[in-house]
Amino acid sequence: MAENERPAEPRAPAGGSAAEPRLIDIDTFRQADLRVAQVVAAEPVAGADRLLRLEVDLGAERRQLVAGIAAFYRPEQLVGRKIIVVANLEPARIRGVESQGMLLAAGGRAPGAALGLLTVDEAIPNGTRVE
After folding, report:
1. What is the value of pTM for the model shown?
2. What count of Cα atoms within 13 Å lies in the side-chain half-sphere of residue 54?
3. SS3 call for 91
4. What is the predicted pLDDT for the residue at 19?
5. What percent of the chain stands above pLDDT 90?
6. Residue 27: which H helix or E strand, with range?
7. How many angstroms separate the CA atoms of 40 and 102, rounded?
């Protein structure tokens, strides 16, 4: 580095929120196994107003997910949709139901805010890795 040059300042990630997320390197990002999954069944979770139990087809296997999206979608609106799932997330028990992954969505945090599921075109096969 020349004497009159300053080191580059770290750039903040896009997004503009007060609490900026920590930057990760590409190898860390590649650890997330994001897959295309098709919703084959959906129903409310008993005793929970916000939760839906989804059965998804990941191509080589079917899995069960629990998602807090009941305020935004009725079960029948989800069946047949192709969504993006974090397939290598450690299973978790939510209201007594095992969730074997997580769907990806945007929004829905602020009161009255819309929520959108991350989806792909019908032509993309179930189980396709998202890169």
Report:
1. 0.81
2. 31
3. coil
4. 79
5. 80
6. helix 26-29
7. 15
| 65, two tokens | 């997910």
Q: Closest Cα to residue 99, out of 87, 117, 108, 81?
A: 87
Q: What is the DSSP string of 35-71?
A: EEEEEEEEEEPTT-SS-EEEEEE-SS-EEEEEES-TT
The predicted model gives 57-78 an average pLDDT of: 97
Residues in the chain: 131
Task: Tell me how many degrees the CA angle 107-23-109 measures, rounded to the nearest 5.
Answer: 15
Q: Which residues contact 108 (CB under 8 A, 6 or more apart)?
A: 69, 71, 72, 114, 115
Q: Which tokens is 19 given?
A: 């609490």
> Is residue 29 classed as helix, strand or coil in its secondary structure?
helix
- Rounded to whole angstroms, the Cα distance separating 34 from 37 reads 9
Average pLDDT, the chain: 89
Handedness of CA 14, 15, 20, 26 (dihedral sign): negative
